[in-house]
Amino acid sequence: MKNIDQKTTQSSGILKSGAIVVSAAFVWFLLYSNLEWFATFSLQFTGITKASRFGDAFYFFIYEVPKVLLLLTGVVFVMGIVHTFVSPERTRAMLSGRRTGVGNVMAATLGIVTPFCSCSAVPLFIGFLQAGVPLGVTFSFLISSPMINEVALALLFGMFGWKVALLYMGMGLMIAIFSGLVIGKLRMERYLEDWVQKLQENKVSASDDCEVMSWALRLREGGSHVREIVGKVWLYIVLGVGLGAGIHGYVPENFMASLMGKSVWWSVPVAVLIGVPMYSNAAGILPIVQALLGKGAALGTVMAFMMSVIALSAPEMIILRKVLKPQLIAVFAGVVAVGIMLVGYVFNLFL
């Protein structure tokens, strides 16, 4: 009788959560499908004309802020549910003991669907090494996870279409796999900090335990994921769209084309150098990318800039310094930078 009551309660919770999700999805679709109307109405209501530079920038801002936030909310909710199936412990267990090559491919692929960023680099790095994950495989994961995350892919798809999003994912995976292979072949374990090397000697077995959750809890976890992620990045989005709006409305097209166009061979390495000191995420940097492209910048150059901001940010290097010696950080940054520049040139050549 008690089991029947528990099952009834669980079913009721699932139905209630499901009804909330369906209602929220309907509201999301209604808002997303009327973004253009909202932006046009805002111009009419304020009396600002779109023909002016300020009006053009204002329209960009009013249209893009809710668009990016809605896309981000929808994707983060879905991935929040996915993440309930992919815990850090399970990820370590899947990668533990994998040989070079297969392990790099698996690690880079897992990086796409796992909720980790540069801020969690140190504990992840230590946990992976203790679980017996090879150094090169660990780097493949740490490069892929922030650079090819679900937020970047969703926003790229929404802004530029599936071809650009798919090409970005493929090139990002190539960078993560190639960089991990190179670092693994160089056998640079001696350039881990001494205390990390001692931890690596005392390896722990990787657990594959994953708590079985009901769908009601998974849906709640999706909502919690939205509150956590969107709550952290919404200000970056507003600032990024604001900067993008300024570029869109005020920067002359000829200027940007001459600075970041396909004909300027040095634009790709310069874009990478500019991107490294910056700190942002895909949600904050993509509106700037869109504005730069609208002003005549080459897609490859802008993508190289975006990748360097996300995958080679100075704050991440500072965090990794706690576990890596400068020689290994330099090799890591150099290999990834070369890969990003190659991606930039490939994008410029074919798109």
What does this structure look like?
The chain has 351 residues and is mainly α. It folds into 2 domains: 1-83 and 216-249, no CATH class; 99-203 and 251-351, no CATH class. The chain is built from 17 helices and no strands. It has helices at 2-32, 35-46, 53-83, 88-95, 102-112, 121-130, 135-147, 150-160, 162-185, 194-201, 215-250, 253-260, 267-275, 282-294, 299-311, 314-320, 326-350. Helix 6 runs antiparallel to helix 7 (135-147) and helix 13 runs parallel beside helix 15. The longest helix has 36 residues, at 215-250. The protein is flat, with a radius of gyration of 22 Å.
Shape: flat
Give the % helix. Answer: over 70%
The first-to-last residue Cα distance is 65 Å
Order of helices and strands: HHHHHHHHHHHHHHHHH
Average the pLDDT over all residues and give the rounded result: 76
Helix count from the secondary structure assignment: 17
Question: Nutshell version of this structure?
Answer:
This protein is mainly alpha-helical. The chain has 17 helices and no strands.
Give the topology.
Layout: H1 2-32, H2 35-46, H3 53-83, H4 88-95, H5 102-112, H6 121-130, H7 135-147, H8 150-160, H9 162-185, H10 194-201, H11 215-250, H12 253-260, H13 267-275, H14 282-294, H15 299-311, H16 314-320, H17 326-350
Helix pairs in contact: 1-3, 1-11, 2-3, 3-8, 3-11, 5-7, 5-9, 6-7, 7-9, 8-9, 8-14, 9-17, 11-14, 13-15, 14-15, 15-17
